[in-house]
Design brief:
The structure is a homodimer of 329-residue chains. Chain A is an alpha/beta fold. Chain A has two domains: 8-180, 3-Layer(aba) Sandwich (Rossmann fold), CATH 3.40.50.10440; 181-309, Hypothetical Protein Tm841, Chain: A,domain 3 (2-Layer Sandwich). Chain A contains eight helices and 15 strands. In chain A, the strands form three sheets. Chain A has a six-stranded mixed sheet with strand order 1-2-5-3-6-7, sandwiched between helices. In chain A, strands 10-9-8-13-11-12 form a six-stranded mixed sheet. A three-stranded antiparallel sheet of chain A has the order 4-14-15, covered by helices on one side. In chain A, helix 3 (107-119) links the parallel strand 6 and strand 7 (124-129). The longest helix of chain A is centred in the C-terminal third of the chain and has 17 residues, at 263-279. The termini of chain A are far apart. The interface between A and B is large, with 62 and 62 residues.
Chain lengths: 329, 329
């Protein structure tokens, strides 16, 4: 295992300390590093909290800040955070208007967020993200997995929370954005969880995993590596089949690297995806390209498409200041 | 070779097309993709142009925009752009106040930018960046290499150009920022140039290259992989020795991933570097952490420190809008 670490047991703690030091203008760490929260809260705003296993950075801590999350609870690598972390985060950022949990659909996360929601003596609701169209049910999931589309849900709902939407409105908006969002990914290599010390899965030198999950879970099929256009055709095809968009539909296109994919390749995939979406009559009105929802150092990428309306676009464009995404301020 | 590509010969063209489509609000492509330039130019401003081999993305095209570069010339992967590209870019973005070339110190880049400078019938000057303290002379370089510190030079000089500094002032500022900047990197894995199809260099399963260049050039020594604190001690030590800072000196700290390094590890390196800089009495007043000056999918990182004064900090903080870096607007 080749990693820039000291001890397997302290990877997360040391990384969170570095993150908090680097972004001290935006975030602060909760006691015992239970959560990352905004430095400044906005009283009367619904508090948005997400979280999940670490190893997907910048998701979620990198999305804490104005216009997105209020707090993120980091579990150990690929391991759900505990209900205690979620409760501590909720108590820290509750501004009197309730708490909205945004949860990727993995069994561990679901169970722990549900326990926290039941224990919390503050009005709360949960948006479940399950944008991955690759497979129904998977290694860690009943139903579809929550993957890179989580970024889009967190951003649009975060912007609406900033403008003062109520908990019920935000819950409805989050569910609607999730429903309008579809993703699918492909892995060219595996990744290595520090505590495991060996690759999560094995992939031959000429193979790829089509429909991979963000923990390296199996997708639709393992096949010989094909070219970028072939990969994009399969990913975009599955997404369009799921969303069943009308001609001319405006969409946000997110091309997301899993951690080990050069920018040069990600933009090549943008080009491939654009041609396919254009041919399908879909109108890409916003792009986001980069390494945002990762599986440690896995090579590969996912494509996410969200069908949007004017209001959602306005929310997308509104001022945003987090460690990983920043515009308009 | 596992890459998201179609044909080796069209990687750069397809990637540039995707980049231009994704960031059409900020940039546009020159004819025959000779350069990436700002969509909107500012008449009367000195034009800043950089460039170099591709494979280091987001450097340089990702830094084109308000507050940074006016144009970037992308060569083929790890290959200098041609003087024709630089001339075409200069003619396209010249605003009547002269052209400043910002060039990383590699023999090929130096030769081609010098030819362009001589052929250009517009007042021009060149800032040479050579921030890599690892080695004197290297595979592609006479003297010290230009690496991640280039980002800091391009940003501070770009901000000064935006406020209206003259060509002579910008040349002096760029030279001063370069002199105040030192970097050193470490590689844990090699990288594969698409046209070559095999890794640029070989590194054993338990080895790292200390002082590696951004094309995988040899550094100071190849040794057994050590822990993050040990690596940070060597990199920061070499940087501090070079800069010979006074106690309390304010600095910008850039922890840069080479392409295949997870964010989790980069922030762990931030934590390690912060402790060392604190112990040395240096005051880190700004952080930048991410994958900015890369060697395709190489795993590893570099640390860069720039000694700053209040004026440079103001320039650093001023509004910036590029594909890869954005704040204040």
């Amino acid at each position: 295992m080749k990693k820039l670490i000291n001890h397997v047991d302290t990877v997360l703690a040391e990384s969170l300390d570095g993150f908090a030091a680097a972004h001290a203008d935006i975030v602060t760490l909760g006691a015992e590093r239970q959560f990352v929260r905004r430095r400044s809260l906005k009283p009367g705003k619904v508090a948005l909290i997400s979280g999940g296993g670490s190893g997907h950075e910048p998701l979620h801590a990198g999305f804490v800040g104005h216009g997105m999350l209020d707090a993120a609870c980091p579990g150990q690598v690929f391991t759900s955070p505990t209900p205690d972390q979620m409760l501590a985060a909720a108590q820290s950022v509750d501004g009197g208007a309730g708490v909205l949990f945004i949860v990727k659909n993995y069994s561990g996360d679901m169970m722990n967020f549900q326990m926290a929601a039941e224990m919390l003596d503050v009005e709360n609701a949960t948006v479940l993200v399950n944008d991955d169209v690759a497979v129904e049910n998977s290694t860690y999931t009943t139903g579809r997995r929550g993957v890179a589309g989580t970024l889009i849900v967190e951003r649009i709902v975060g912007a609406a929370a900033e403008r003062g939407d109520t908990l019920a409105e935000l819950k409805a908006l989050g569910d609607a954005v999730n429903k309008a969002t579809a993703s699918m990914g492909v892995a060219l290599t595996s990744c290595t969880v520090p505590a495991a010390g060996k690759p999560t899965f094995q992939l031959g030198d000429d193979e790829m995993e089509v429909g991979v999950g963000i923990h390296g879970e199996p997708g639709r099929r393992r096949v010989k590596l094909t070219d970028a256009d072939g990969i994009a055709t399969e990913l975009v095809g599955a997404i369009l089949k799921d969303l069943a968009l009308k001609p001319g539909q405006p969409v946000i296109l997110l091309v997301n690297g899993f951690g080990g994919t050069p920018s040069l390749e990600l933009y090549l995939m943008v080009n491939a995806a654009m041609k396919l979406l254009g041919a399908a009559g879909v109108q890409v009105v916003r792009h986001l390209t980069g390494t945002y929802v990762t599986s440690l150092e896995m090579a590969g990428c996912s494509i996410t498409v969200t069908a949007v309306n004017d209001e959602w676009l306005q929310l997308w464009d509104s001022p945003l200041q987090t460690a990983a995404l920043r515009w308009g301020m």
